[in-house]
Amino acid sequence: MYSTTHLCFQVLLDQGSKMHRGIGFITFENADSEENLMADTHELGGSNVVVD
Prior knowledge:
Elements: E1 5-13, E2 20-28, H1 31-39, E3 42-44, E4 47-49
Antiparallel strand pairs: 1-2, 3-4
């Protein structure tokens, strides 16, 4: 389905609350994984996740 991830981290804090804004970045081993990821729908903790 997806290849090995090389780097996965979450950044960007809301300046008011100092809470994470829910933005994450992933680097895959190969580009085919990106295409597969974009074609799928995703859910995390009962909420849909937008992948751009």
